[in-house]
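Workshop exercise sheet. Pairs work together: one partner reads the sequence aloud, the other fills in the structure field after running the prediction. Swap roles for the next sheet.
Pair: D.N. / O.F.
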Amino acid sequence: MQKFQWFCVVVLIGWTISFMGCGKVNRILVNLVELNLLRTNFKDTRILNDLTQLTHLNLGGNQINDISSLTVLTRLKNLFLWGNKINDISSLSDLTQLTFLSIWSNEISDISPITGLVNLRFLFLEGNPITDKTPLHTLLGKNPNVDIDIDIND
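Structure field:
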């Protein structure tokens, strides 16, 4: 029988998720390639740092305001962060494998970090107080095939 070095409990109560005893993520979990924590009141993305094999991560509809720890998840191709409280997306600039990024309905005003995401095919931005749309033109210059969804009044 194989022994595990760490013990991790994931508890779902209603729509709330909590991780107990997960200072280090269980060795089974580190091999996850897809994780869906949609509408679970999830707040602290630091717990995901060891999940470096993830290619699909859905954190939509939560209470997240800091995504700086996601910078280590460089294998991500699909990232759903819609409906949170995010205002700084600078950590996304390292996620160059992203093909799908959904960050609508947040508090993002500066979208300049997206200009290097040349593999993007779909980008959802509506519902953010974007102050400068120049980065969209820069991104389209590098990747004319990206489909961008943004409020028409923005």
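Discussion prompt: The radius of gyration is 16 Å. What would you look at next?
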